[in-house]
Each structure stands twice: as C-alpha cells, then as structure tokens.
C-alpha cells in the first residue's frame, strides 16, 4: 500500500566499518602554496557569493595566504584545498560550478547561511569528498545524481532547504555513506528501496517531505519507526560560532509528535579562529597523541549523558579511535589559572581502576573540555539497570566489579589524598573486559563551592549521599565509604538507589528486610539461582555493605578494610584469579 508519508528512521544496525567521522584537516601548513587551478576555483567561489559581513576579505587575489592560514575557512594539503568551512557567516548567492576543480576537497561546510541556487553537479566529480554540510540554507532544485558517485562520501546533510524533486537512487552507491539528512525540504516521489537497504547508513532523516512508499519487510528489526524520540547523535563541527549553541537549541525541529535534536556541540563557536588556527589550548598528559585540537573539534560525536558537572560525549576521531569528552558546564568551574593547576594534577593519576584523563581543552571563550578513555560497556548503572532484569549477571562478575571499585577508591584515598564526593554507579565505568574504573574523581577541585553543593544535593536525590552531608556540606573519606556501601547493595539487590521502596531508601529497605530475618528476599533473583555455592559470599558481602552504610560515620570501615574483606570473601572460593584480579594491585 503506497500512502504519502514522512519518514524519520534511526537505523539500529551500526556496522563498525560505518563509524568513521568526516575527515578533518591537518594541523599547520606544509609550506606549499595553493595550486593555480585551486586558486581560480576559490576566486570563482568568492565571486558567486555575497559576503555582507566581510568574512572573505582575506581571500586576496595573490593566493599566497590561502594555504598558510591567511584565508578564512580554508585548509590545504600539498597545495590542494581540502576543507572549505564557512558556517554562520551570513553568506548569500550561490555555489559556483567551478568547485569541481578542487579535486582534493574533502569537506564542504556552509551550513547556517542564506545561500540559494542549486547544488552544483560538479560536486560529484570530487573523488576525495567525505562530508557535505549545507543544512539551513535556501538551496533550490534537486539533488544532483552525481553526488552518489563520490566514492568516499560519508556525511551528507541538506536538511532545512527548499530542495525539490526525487531522491536519486545513486545515493545508495555511496558505500561509505553513514549520515544522510534530507529532512525539511519538499522532496517527492517514492522512497528509494536501494537506499533503505543500505548497510552503511546509521542515520537517515527524511521527515517533512512528500515522499511515498512502504517500508520494506526485509528491514524487520533493523529499523525503528520513531514516534517520540530525541536523537542523541550529533556532529562536532569545526569553526562554529558561540551563537551556534542557542541557534541549535532554537532550531530543534518538531512536528507530528516526532522531534529531532541536533544537540549542543561540545565546543561553541570561535574555538578555531579564522584561518583555521586553533584559538584554544589542548594539553595532553601522556605526551603527543594521535589527535590534535582540530581533530577533536571535528569528531563525530553522540551524547552519552548529562550530569551536574556537564555533558559527556562519545567522540569518534578520524582514525576511528574513540574518546569520551566531558564538556563542563559554564560558570561552575574555578578561574583558569586555578583550574589548570588542579587539572594538571588530576591528569597525571594512573591506576587500573581509575579512569585516565588523557587531555583537556580550554576554548577561547572559556569553554572547558576534559578528554578521557572511552569505556565501551558504559556505566555500572546502565549495566545493572539499563538492559532490563532479564539480562543475567553472575556473582563472580559482580564481585569482581566490587573489588575493582574498592581498589580504585583505596588508591584515591591513600595515594592521591582525593575524596571523590560523588561516587555513584553512574560514575563507575566498565571497559570491554568488564573491569571497573572510577570516573569523575577529583572534579570537586575544579569547581566552585556552589557547584559542589549542587553535586552533593544531587547525590542525595539519587540515594548515594551519606546522611551527615545534610549538615557537613563537604564530603570526606567516610562519606565515600557510605556511597561505596550503597553501590555494594546495588550489586547485591540490582535495585536502583534512586527508586524509593515504600518510602525508604535502599540501605533502609535492606536493613528492614534483614531485621525481619527475610534476608534471602534482599538478593537479586539471578544470584539466588546459585545460592548453594555462593550463599556465604552473598551474606558476608551484605554484612560488609551494611557496615559501610552505618548511619554513624565513625562506625564505618576504612576503604583498605573494605578491600581486605572483599578479598577474603572471594578467597573462600577455589577460583583461579586472572592477572587483572591481582589483589596486590593498588
């Protein structure tokens, strides 16, 4: 049945080979001036545009500055233009056909301007083109079918223009295309089945068009028809101005119960100065690394979560490597000098059960990013509660996580003199081997007093805050032990501390059950299946957890005592420990 409809699909099957970001420019100038053919093409490009704010004044006729950082929005390699990046510049006019002479062009980013006219078919002649970002303009006409023959095209965003015609079947030929956004145009005709069967696409947005056609039955579980969804995939664009943040928020498209959120870029506009030089400061803690500031700011990213401290993104760099980027909220951090002094200490902390900070970035307008190792299995909270209770987690895995957590906290307390102050299962991250690592440690040192008070209040709302913090207002090692005890109870019960049970929190609920001598009712049903072999371990761990959450701080154990008891509990079983389980690692 062919009914006219609008489509917005989030593809569920994400192949590893698809997850490649749009290629970003190399840092610095290689000393080669722009070629004659590229210079002519750039001059034609400028001539066809109206530049009311004068951003293109630097594009002088000599061309000597084109590849050395003197021309706004231009990046080169070996005299070939590889990036044209001019978003948010108020440009009018049209895109010249001469753009097809830029044979080295990898990225064309002209989004959020007022450019009209048609998309030049000569774009399809560019063998190195990876990314085309032309959304939020006034483009008319149809999509040239030649675009489908760019062999390296990965990202094409033409959303929110005035485009018409049909979607060319040739786009399915782009075997590397993983991001396609054609929403908010006036496309008509059938939805190309060859496109919907593409195995490379991980994002396809076609809403607010006049397309028709059924969904292929073969998609089955590969497609989710989104009725109410907030999309978490975003692009971290280079050279975005500060006002991009507010415009992006105001530009969220909503219709018919379906919404798209482009997200807030981890770094706001002005982070890369005109001419392409980084306006901020990127500091690595482990010596030179594979990514530069430009690489980081150009990475494909998706929002992983938000907290009192800020927003965390998963960033995929050009070489395919992944990092976690935390953008700290504005106005909650200390001044730059004090911030840098403290973060330089945190960045040197290394332990198998503590999440390593790899770098930090300070933007020219006060933006602060922290770069960490990416943990593929996410947080302990999502591991326990995100997959549903039907996902079984055995006791050895939970005990291993508990020991890892105790080791990491012991190291922070004893070796670094750091009180975490916000220890929750959301701040315990798991790597590919389910090794636990403590995150967000020491961030209180970077924050203002008011910000730290908010963090403590949030921890209380989530069920991890020690009762004395309502008066003390400042965390200490004993409040960390309380939070550790709550997480141990979480591992035993698989209940979220933030969910009230008959009006009481998790420690109170467990204590009441134990008092009534219904202890077995406390444990997660998965654990009770092996009760004959692990019952003593469960009971001893429960006693330890209740000891940690004792209302009296002085009655709680020190972290080294917690670690010792966990090791003794585990040693009760004749299980050969793996090298990563060495209890002597602290």
Automatic annotation (TrEMBL):
Keywords, comma-separated and alphabetical: ATP-binding, Kinase, Leucine-rich repeat, Membrane, Nucleotide-binding, Phosphoprotein, Receptor, Repeat, Signal, Transferase, Transmembrane, Transmembrane helix
Signal peptide residues on this chain, from the entry's feature table: 1-24
Listed transmembrane segments: 219-240
Domain spans labelled Protein kinase: 298-569
Main location: membrane
Presence of keyword Glycosyltransferase: no
Topology of this chain in the membrane: Single-pass membrane protein
Keyword NADP among record annotations: no
Superkingdom as given in the UniProt entry: Eukaryota
GO MF annotation, one: protein kinase activity
PANTHER family assigned: LEUCINE-RICH REPEAT RECEPTOR-LIKE PROTEIN KINASE IMK3-RELATED
Protein name: Inactive receptor kinase At2g26730 family
UniProt organism field: Cajanus cajan (Pigeon pea)
């Amino acid at each position: 049945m062919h009914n006219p409809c609008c489509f917005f699909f989030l593809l569920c099957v994400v192949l590893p080979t698809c997850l490649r970001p749009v290629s970003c420019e190399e840092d610095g100038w290689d000393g080669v001036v722009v070629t004659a053919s590229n210079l002519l093409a750039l001059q034609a490009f400028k001539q066809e545009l109206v530049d009311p704010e004068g951003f293109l004044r630097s594009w002088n006729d000599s061309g000597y500055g084109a590849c050395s950082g003197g021309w706004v929005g231009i990046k080169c390699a070996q005299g070939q233009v590889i990036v044209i990046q001019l978003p948010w510049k108020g440009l009018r006019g049209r895109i010249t056909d001469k753009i097809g002479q830029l044979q080295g062009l990898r990225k064309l980013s002209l989004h959020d301007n007022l450019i009209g006219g048609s998309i030049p078919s000569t774009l399809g002649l560019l063998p190195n083109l990876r990314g085309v970002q032309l959304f939020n303009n006034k483009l008319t006409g149809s999509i040239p079918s030649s675009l489908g023959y760019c062999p390296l095209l990965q990202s094409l965003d033409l959303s929110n223009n005035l485009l018409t015609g049909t979607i060319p079947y040739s786009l399915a030929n782009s075997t590397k295309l993983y991001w396609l956004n054609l929403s908010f145009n006036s496309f008509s005709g059938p939805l190309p089945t060859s496109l919907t069967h593409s195995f490379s696409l991980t994002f396809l947005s076609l809403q607010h068009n006049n397309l028709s056609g059924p969904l292929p039955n073969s998609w089955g579980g590969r497609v989710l028809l989104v009725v109410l969804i907030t999309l978490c995939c975003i692009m971290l664009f280079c050279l975005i101005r500060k006002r991009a943040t507010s415009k992006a928020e105001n530009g969220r498209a909503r219709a018919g119960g379906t919404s798209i959120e482009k997200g807030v870029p981890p770094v706001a506009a002005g982070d890369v100065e005109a001419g392409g030089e980084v306006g901020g400061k990127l500091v690595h803690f482990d010596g030179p690394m594979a990514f530069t500031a430009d690489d980081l700011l150009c990475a494909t990213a998706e929002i992983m979560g938000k907290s009192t401290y800020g927003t965390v993104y998963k960033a995929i760099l050009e070489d395919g490597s992944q990092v976690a980027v935390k953008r700290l909220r504005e106005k909650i951090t200390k001044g730059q000098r004090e911030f840098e002094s403290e973060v330089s200490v945190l960045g040197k902390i290394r332990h198998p059960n503590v999440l390593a900070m790899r770098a930090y970035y300070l933007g020219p307008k006060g933006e602060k990013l922290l770069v960490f190792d990416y943990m593929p299995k996410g947080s302990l909270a999502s591991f326990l509660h995100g997959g549903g209770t039907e996902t079984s987690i055995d006791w050895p895995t939970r005990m291993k996580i508990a020991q890892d957590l105790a080791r990491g906290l012991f190291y922070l307390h004893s070796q670094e003199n750091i009180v975490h102050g916000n220890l929750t299962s959301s701040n315990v991250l798991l790597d590919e081997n389910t090794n636990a690592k403590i995150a967000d440690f020491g961030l209180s040192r970077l924050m203002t007093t008011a910000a730290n008070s908010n963090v403590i209040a949030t921890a209380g709302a989530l069920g991890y805050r020690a009762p004395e913090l309502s008066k003390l207002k400042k965390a200490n090692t004993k409040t960390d032990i309380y939070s550790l005890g709550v997480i141990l109870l979480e591992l035993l019960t698989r209940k979220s501390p933030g969910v009230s049970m008959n009006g009481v929190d998790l420690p109170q609920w467990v204590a009441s059950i134990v008092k009534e001598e219904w202890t077995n009712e406390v444990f997660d049903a998965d654990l009770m299946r092996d009760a004959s072999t692990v019952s003593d371990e469960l009971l001893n761990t429960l006693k330890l957890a209740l000891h940690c959450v004792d209302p009296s701080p002085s009655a709680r154990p020190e972290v080294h005592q917690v670690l010792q008891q966990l090791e003794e509990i585990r040693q009760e079983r004749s299980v050969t420990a793996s090298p990563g389980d060495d209890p002597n690692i602290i």
